[in-house]
Amino acid sequence: MGKSRSRKQIKCSNCHTIGHNKRKCHKEQVPKHQRKVTYEEEKGIVMWIDEDEIRQTMEQEFLESLFVQEEEHTKLDQEEQTRMDEEAFQQFLEEERMFKKLEEERERKEAEMEAREEADFWKDYGLDVDYTMFLDKK
After folding, report:
1. Is residue 73 included in any domain, yes or no?
2. Coil vs helix vs strand at 8
3. What is the mean pLDDT of the chain?
4. Secondary structure (DSSP) of 87-138
């Protein structure tokens, strides 16, 4: 049955079964662009997909992505806090310099005022004294 003259089995080019040729085939023609059969399908291996396993995997991946996002936010927050701390420290140093300048200016004016008072005191006794000579003394 279904042997050619060369004693090989005949395979139908229409339905791809062995035992007859295309002329004697009574089945519908198989489309030419048929999808490729996977190794598992060819060997008859059935793979069952467990929905719970998929759900757990998706949940785990989601939680891992949240963890990564939280780590990134924490790192950004730490960098921002460090930057703000540095800015606050620089502002503190600037204020200290400003207060030091103000204190020096106040002390200079106070010393000048005392020198003028001392010069005025000596002017009352008839001495013509320049107040700057008392500034050098202090």
Report:
1. yes
2. coil
3. 82
4. HHHHHHHHHHHHHHHHHHHHHHHHHHHHHHHHHHHHHHTT----THHHHHH-
**pLDDT, tens digit, for every residue of 97-122?**
999 999 999 999 999 999 889 888 88
Buried b (16+ CB within 10 A) or exposed e, 99-119: eeeeeeeeeeeeeeeebeebb
Kindly report, residue by residue over 66-88, the tens digit of the pLDDT. 999 999 999 999 999 999 999 99
In a domain, 98, yes or no: yes
Report if residue 71 sits inside a domain: yes
Task: Tell me the residue range of the domain where 113 lies.
Answer: 52-124
Q: Which two tokens stand for residue 113?
A: 């005022």
- pTM here is 0.41
